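Hello Y.,

Per our agreement to keep a running log of every chain we model this quarter, I'm adding this entry. I've kept the format consistent with earlier entries: sequence first, then predicted structure.
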Amino acid sequence: MDGGSGRAFGLYLHVPFCRGKCPYCDFYSLRGTESASKKWNRRADTLYFGGGTPSLLGGKRITRIVNAARRGFGLENAEITLEANPEENLSGFFREIREAGVNRLSLGLQSADDGELRLLGRRHTAEQAARAVRDAQEAGIGNISLDLMLAVQGQTEQSLLRSIDFCARTGVSHVSAYLLKIEPRTAYWKNRAGLHLPDEDAAAALYLLACRELEARGYRQYEISNFAKPGCESRHNLKYWRCEEYLGLGPSAHSFLGGKRFHYERSTAGFLRGDAPVQDGKGGGFDEFAMLRLRLAGGLTDEACRARFGRPIPERIKKAARLYEPGGLTACAENGFHFTPKGFLLSNPLTAEILFAK
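Predicted structure for the entry above:
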């Protein structure tokens, strides 16, 4: 495979194992065992263990994988993130992975309301999540992100505020706040007629409330669903949104290298057998670059376009973006524009309307 430019890329390892399937989850996952890594001729400056629930591999396997990745990809001064669920006492595990070099943790909180957690099919309580954060901090992992789901069954503005306060009280540096999306092939999809979810207007109000209240507690919104204390933005995920290169290893993992996109099938057996990844064609063109940049709070700028393509934003695009400013969906300047939180709620159609304006 062509490794592309000499710049450092992001390395993603998909660990497809979970204790059980949450009713809203469409990620490829199984009950289970273990996974692998490969050698490359390029260096990586981020490593992300996603899934699934990577913590199920245990500290010793995580350590071996980190060491193998370090030998194959360098990982000098790398951000190394691992996803985990706060289902049990993980204090010993956190000490092991911190010693191995893991310096960022993403915990699947989803809600700090135990009733909402039960409806989401989660296996932990709010108190277990608080303990997991404390244990990680005591193990020396200071950069911690909590996942928070918006517009879930039974959620109100009051219960969401309690969850936001919970995140702030724990002292975590990052919050990922996602609107619930009902995906095909999930238990929620099969039972969607019986779900008691907030309607579209209520879901929008919950999202805007989360944006305001997280900002008020010092979590700056830097992407549609991501909020961080200054300097604690996810370096790995920023590679996706800045249309930078990354290599994904594991079943269902996606990659973007050398101007090409490819992915592995959703098959653990196929990956372990060494099946070649599926080619998804060229990537990194202007439309894709602009679409991804518009997920960021900083939006699309002339400077970024010149650095990537040698030219500023086309005037027709700036003109189209200005049409949505009076409605509070965009904020425009001479050198570019970005979406407001209100605009983020309509980001897919709004992006299309602006980028493909005549």
